[in-house]
Every structure is written in C-alpha cells, then in structure tokens.
C-alpha cells in the first residue's frame, strides 16, 4: 500500500502533509504536490493533515491512475521537506471539479536560491 495525492491538491498546494512525513517522500510542482509511491512507507500520517482531502490510500477504488501520476511527477519534480504557505487561491479552488484538465501544471516548483 502507498498514499497518493489526487487532483484536489491542484491549485491549492497545502503543505501540512509535508511537515508530518517522516521520510520526505513529497515532491513539489508549480501548483500541487505528489508522493513518490516507492518512498512512501504507508504510515498514513499525511492523509488526515490535508485540508483539501486530496491524499488517498492506493487501496481505494480508481487509484491506479493516481499511483502512476504520482510516480511520474515525483521523478521530475524537486523534493519538498518543509511546509510553505498554500497558493493564494487555495480556499476558492478547494473542491473545484475538473482541476486536472483545467488547472494542472507540469512545471516543477521554483527552488529557493
């Protein structure tokens, strides 16, 4: 089992989950986070921390596509190890349907210099 980030994270990017992860398996895109399914130790502490309810266990139905999605972008994006402020539009975008098609960015997060 592993945990994955789903589309409700898009355009919200709350990072409460990052601060509780014991293995630093979160990776940061421009407007969402993903979990590396190979690094996740299945502890589950991240799931209840997500204000957007965007983290799911891969044992739930229809999660196969999210496992692949998370693995793909975890390989492309930088690791995130400290919590940050959510995106400015997070509250307004939380729960908006269809964000994968309309708001997702493949761009990695900007790294602090």
TrEMBL record:
InterPro entries: 4Fe4S_Fe-S-bd, 4Fe4S_Fe_S_CS, 7Fe_ferredoxin, Fd_C, FdxA, RnfB_subfamily
Pfam families on file: DUF3470, Fer4
Gene Ontology MF term list: 3 iron, 4 sulfur cluster binding; 4 iron, 4 sulfur cluster binding; electron transfer activity; metal ion binding
TM region positions: none
Gene3D superfamilies, alphabetized: 3.30.70.20
Keyword Repeat assigned: yes
Region (Disordered): 87-113
Domain 4Fe-4S ferredoxin-type: 1-30, 31-60
Cofactor names: [4Fe-4S] cluster; [3Fe-4S] cluster
UniProt KW keywords: 3Fe-4S, 4Fe-4S, Electron transport, Iron, Iron-sulfur, Metal-binding, Repeat, Transport
Function: Ferredoxins are iron-sulfur proteins that transfer electrons in a wide variety of metabolic reactions.
Name recorded for this polypeptide: Ferredoxin
Naturally occurring in which organism (per UniProt): Actibacterium atlanticum
